[in-house]
Q: What sequence folds into this?
């Protein structure tokens, strides 16, 4: 039985007669192939990447497993349509907190049409992409049984200042997840989700090391999907913080040049997460007034 993904945070969504991804119960995510070059480009990427022997295993694990394509009944009722069959990254999660982070200050590839470049340029300028090197494309944060999910309207998350963005990334790993932006998040789960030898920061650093060297692909408009199981965090267990790269409709060949656009965004994201880990409570740090100029 195919159904609408229960934890999708961004992108084109199924439902109300619209075309969007579906999932089954065995852990597969079916993404409809967009009819234009975006669909063929994403299929080309998955086909090439999944058989590319130059990609080490410690890097391929950051990408959803690709199971080919399949004709299935499209969610918009238009009949059989080809879908990419991917690993469902949310399978097994009960109450996941998830954020889709669109990477790069520039979301368009150089060979895109002038019209498409103008559309993206406008959005990159109007969001945090240009100043911060990434934008939050969509987010859901699970609070607890009483409060359920906080899933803010997507556009309200896209043009945040550095300070507000840091507050959201803190809220993501906090036990107090009220939508009130003035409430200081407690970062109760920062150490277990972001920190540690297998935590999100360590995964981001592993990915960065590869991006500092790889010149095969340029990942325009690609997202890092960051997630963890809040239910486990609340029980004091390892919440399984993970990062995965998704959305490859605008990936192009790197032609021997590093992907400085993605890499720049990644460095920026790493800086935010590192600062949260080193100073989770910086907002309440009191500045002790100096006496005669000596602290
Ligand atoms: N393999 C996956 N497993 C589980 N969820 C996924 C997977 N791939 C994508 N998603 C969910 O679907 C959302 C949209 O994915 P994606 O960016 O690939 O779609 P899109 O329609 O191409 O997006 P856009 O409109 O931004 O180009 C993600 O934010 C995530 O919540
Ligand atoms: O250019 P494409 O390939 O058609 O796809 C768009 C692109 O991924 C944008 O970055 C995205 O904005 P977000 O940053 O909001 O994800 C937009 O979503 P939208 O249609 O909701 O604006 C998509 O339609």
A:
């Amino acid at each position: 039985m195919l159904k609408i993904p229960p934890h999708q945070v961004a992108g084109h969504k199924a439902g109300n007669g619209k075309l969007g991804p579906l999932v089954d119960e065995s852990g597969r995510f079916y993404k409809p192939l967009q009819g234009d070059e975006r669909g063929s480009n994403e299929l080309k990427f998955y086909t090439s990447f999944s058989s590319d022997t130059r990609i080490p295993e410690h890097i391929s694990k950051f990408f959803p497993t690709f199971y080919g394509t399949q004709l299935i009944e499209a969610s918009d009722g238009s009949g059989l349509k080809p879908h990419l069959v991917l690993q469902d990254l949310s399978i097994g999660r009960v109450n996941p907190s998830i954020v889709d982070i669109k990477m790069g200050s520039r979301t368009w590839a150089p060979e895109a049409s002038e019209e498409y470049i103008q559309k993206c340029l406008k959005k990159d300028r109007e969001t945090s992409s240009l100043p911060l090197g990434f934008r939050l494309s969509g987010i859901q944060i699970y609070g607890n049984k009483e409060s359920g999910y906080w899933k803010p309207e997507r556009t309200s998350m896209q043009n945040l200042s550095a300070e507000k963005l840091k507050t959201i990334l803190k809220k993501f790993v906090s036990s107090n997840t009220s939508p009130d932006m003035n409430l200081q998040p407690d970062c109760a789960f920062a150490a277990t989700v972001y920190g540690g030898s297998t935590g999100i920061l360590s995964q981001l650093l592993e990915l960065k090391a590869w991006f500092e060297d790889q010149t095969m692909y340029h990942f325009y408009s690609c997202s890092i999907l960051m997630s963890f199981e809040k239910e486990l965090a609340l029980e004091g267990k390892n919440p399984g913080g993970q990062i995965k790269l998704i959305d490859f409709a605008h990936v192009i060949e790197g032609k021997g040049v590093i992907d400085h656009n993605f890499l720049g965004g990644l460095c920026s994201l790493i800086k935010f997460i590192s600062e949260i880990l080193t100073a989770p409570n910086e907002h309440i740090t009191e500045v002790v007034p100096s006496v005669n100029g000596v602290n």
